[in-house]
# Entry
Amino acid sequence: MNPLNSNTPAGNPFRKFDNAFALMAVVPMLGFVFILTQDGSWEAFEGRGGLMILLLIMISLLGYWLGYRVIRRLFEQLVNFNRAISRMNELKSVFVSEVSHEVKNPLVTLRMGLSFLDEDMMNTLTEDQRQVIAGCERSVERLIRLTTDLLDLAKIEAETMPVKHEKISLRPLLEEVSRFMKPHIDKKHLQFTGDFANGEHFLKGDSDHLTRVIINLMDNAIKYTPEGLSMGVRLVPGKKYFDLDVWNEGNEIPAAKREEIFERYRRIDTGQEAGTGLGLAIVKELVNLHRGEIRLERSDSKNHFIVRLPKDFTSLRPAVI
# Structure
């Protein structure tokens, strides 16, 4: 929660601001009085010199008060502006969620209709007609994925995304996802290496979310690996954490942009594949839900997307998302 957006007594930004300014005034005054009482220097306030000292103190207090009024007015504008932006973001999230939900249902129906059409009329369609139907199916699938991503991001923003606490065996999960992605890997003639570490390795988390993290990272690696080159997945067990390294050969992402690619709707223009810029953003959010972290490194002419996940995220403090 944004502290500037809190209306509770404990989190009231204006009360904190006033208290801070009060302390700024009281502490120097107390120090001034303490010095005078200790040194017995009250004589300094006698006569014309004392009048000048009192006048300077009054001018200083007046300047302090005027400065307080100006700064507080600016602070009020900042708080109100922040609240307006937060409200706009809430309305945007609600709008995106509602529109995505309304669009997704007819898309699913359309996909089913295309599937039935393909099955019932396969023998009567020409090759060109079958290609048109296949193209429609691919477009519908892309739109369904997009609306699903938007709905999930809305849930994460609203902090309503459910997270299960399951005991997950990582090696079978990685093997299953790799088999699922194999047709896409083979389609580009990529060399795949799976190093899932020997033995049993368990993690407490949400298997659906972690599956999506792995699929999104592997899909990203497939998308940006030139045909015929290599990619892979490597599991590195640690004492309290697991490191999941999804790597690929391909163009280097500039160091200055390696944080940007995890932001929503951000894409690095490589002249290759198009996308929505949501896949890696969702990965980061799902990793955050598990109190983990993700980073991008470059070594040995390879891009390494490294996800660090705690073995039991329920024992850690909530991450700031």
Summary: The longest helix spans residues 47-121. The domain at 166-315 is CATH 3.30.565.10 (Heat Shock Protein 90). The chain has two domains: 1-161, 166-315. The beta strands are 166-169, 191-195, 202-205, 230-237, 241-249, 293-299, 302-310.
